Every structure is written in structure tokens, then in C-alpha cells.
């Protein structure tokens, strides 16, 4: 099938390449001419603007966006609506909040257009291994996208999970779980490296991937990272969060579902950004005040 692709960043460009390798035609657009040039090298057709992209595609059109959540998605939809025709499909493959997705779906429906929210996991490895895709939207929209989804995902790697918003909700929870798993591995390896035993952590990670109940792709990535930098000395202990973990915790609160592991994993990321936190200084001050415990002055 022919498909328009907007956003050629780390994931978008590789997704374009995978589609092209699968025999699809891709009309590519990005604000970066350099990124568009990379897509063209892989076989895509360049679009100078959104109007040119739409004109290059025969209806019913499918336009897939891999752009930052929030305002950029609203701006894109606002610019696309006057250009598209009834029956065309817009795919938001980024990590949008599912409530925004529901609102945007209603907006597009009023114009006779479809929105598919494609929660996409796979990162930089997706080009080789395929992308796990959680898709929300109407059945007719998913039917149009089916050939592209079959190419982007590995076998059994995409699923129509429900109406608009369901894909992004599933991806949000997926990423919340990811926070908890990553934190568990981080804490476990921290205890190993602090123990009285001189473990080769890369070899331990490799061992645990051989039939252990904690084996996983994340642990394979840990093994890879430890092989490249055994003491992780090239990295700062500063961990960002991109929003989905926060949204997961918000939903847990709203639904009155206890999620202590996911919540503490999110808070651990906040803690990583406070090397000299006021809270820790307050703890030291209180211990000194009530018990005369030793403190370290600056």
C-alpha cells in the first residue's frame, strides 16, 4: 500500500525503512530536510509540505505520524483536516494521552475522517525485530492499515485493542510496567555491585538470560550495556520520564487500583535528578537535632 509518513526521528525513519523494505510506497515529510533525504535514500518519495504529501496519495489515504505528543499532534491534525477527504485515516503512533486521542477522534469524525492511535513499542531495534503495535480505532480504518501493520510488526505483533484511545491507553500501561521492570533490574544490580563478592555483572546478566524466570529483552539490553561499560562510568545517574509513567499512576489513582511498584519506580526517576536534594539535607538536619548524629558540612 501507499502511505504518508510524518516525523522521521529515531523511530519514524526506521519505520519508514521497514515499510519500504516490505514493498510499500512511502511519501515522507519532516521539518528536517536531512531526515527526508535519508528516507529518500531508502526509496521514499519526498514531500515538501503536507499538501504535497496528500496530493501524492490516492484516496482513501493513510497518513502515519511519529511526532511528539501534545501541541504538535493538534497542529498536524488541524493542518491536515482541510486537505483530506472523507474516509482518509490519520495514525498517531506517538505516545499521546488517550484522553487527547478521544478528543481528536471526535474532531476528525466530524470531518468524515478516521483516527487510529497506534501505541508503538520497539525503539531503535524495531527496524530489525519489528514493532509491537497496540491499535485503537474503527474496524474499517484498521482494515485499510492492515498491510502496513503486518509489515511493521513481527508475527502476532499488532492487535486491534479497541476503539479510539484504547491503543494509547494500552501503551501507557505498557510503559508504566516498563518503569517497574527497569527499576527492579537497576536495584538488583546495585545490590550485586555493592556486595562483598566481585561479580562480573555482564556475565551475571548473560547467565540470567539462560532459562531464568527473570530473563527478558530488557535484561539482554542490560547485558549489552554492561559489556560496553562494566561500571557504567560513562553515564550520569539522571533518568528522564516521558510522561506515560505519570499518566499510568494518575489512572491508578482515578481508578482506585493500587500500583505501588509502578508508582515508586516513577518516583525513583524523580529522585535520580536530585543529587543534593533538600529532603536529604532535612533528614540529616533532623537526625542531628534530635540525636546529635554526625553530619557532613559543605
Helix content: 40-55%
What series of H and E elements makes up the topology? EHEHEHEHEHEHEHEHHHHHH
Strand element count: 8
Strand content: 5-15%
Structural class: alpha/beta
CA radius of gyration: 23 Å
State mean pLDDT (0 to 100 scale).
Answer: 95
What topology emerges from the helices and strands here?
Blueprint: E1 2-6, H1 10-21, E2 25-29, H2 33-42, E3 45-46, H3 50-55, E4 62-65, H4 71-80, E5 89-92, H5 98-110, E6 114-121, H6 126-129, E7 132-136, H7 139-152, E8 158-162, H8 166-194, H9 201-208, H10 217-228, H11 244-254, H12 260-272, H13 278-291
Helix pairs in contact: 1-2, 8-11, 8-12, 9-10
Fold and architecture overview:
The protein has helices at 10-21, 33-42, 50-55, 71-80, 98-110, 126-129, 139-152, 166-194, 201-208, 217-228, 244-254, 260-272, 278-291, and strands spanning 2-6, 25-29, 45-46, 62-65, 89-92, 114-121, 132-136, 158-162. It has 298 residues and is an alpha/beta fold. An eight-stranded mixed β-sheet has the order 3-2-1-4-5-6-7-8, with helices on both faces. β7, α7 and β8 form a beta-alpha-beta unit. α1 (10-21) packs parallel to α2, α8 crosses α12 (260-272) and α9 (201-208) runs antiparallel to α10 (217-228). The radius of gyration is 23 Å and the shape is elongated. The model has no long low-confidence stretch (mean pLDDT 95).
